[in-house]
Write a structure and sequence with these properties.
The protein has a 4-stranded antiparallel sheet, with helices on one face. A 4-stranded antiparallel sheet has the order 4-6-7-8, with helices on one face. By secondary structure, the protein is α+β, with helices and mostly antiparallel strands. It has 2 domains: 59 residues, no CATH class; 110 residues, minor pseudopilin epsh domain (minor pseudopilin epsh fold, 3-Layer(bab) Sandwich), CATH 3.55.40.10. It contains 3 helices and 8 strands; from the N terminus they run αααββββββββ.
Amino acid sequence: MTSCGGERSAWRENQRWCRAHFHRSHRRGASAATGVTLLELLIVLSIMAFVATIVLPMLGGGVSTSELKSAARELAAGLRYARGQAIVQRGDALLVLDVAARTFTLPPDARVHRLPEKLEVKLFTAQRDLVGENVGAIRFFPDGGSNGGRITLAAGERKYDVDVDWLTGRVTILE
């Protein structure tokens, strides 16, 4: 019986040690537990969002929103210049747009203005001002009026329409 009692007492001793050890380690784990506060999580997420807004457009290889807007403004400036030339010179003035090459010129100036390569360009103008399959013009008259038209610049889902009013020749950029 002694041997049984000895085993029983050793078992109880072992059980006591396990309970004490479990409770000590459990308490230690609770007090030493490290967690992430909501504030820390929000700071990390905002940093990640900031980095993503800067890095992702660079990796995309497409046309950024600022490039798209800049191209629309450059085109609108060219149209306004052509209108001004028509009024000053008291004759017709053109902006000739090559949709395939993504370029435009303001005759008689031979300088070629280039739009971003990955930009989708569409031209809506009068039938008589279509020079070729991919080339057309928007014409301005001496009184400031125009044949009217629209040039659409698009990159994916984003697009800008550069409208020319046929009566007044007014040039506007629409998002």
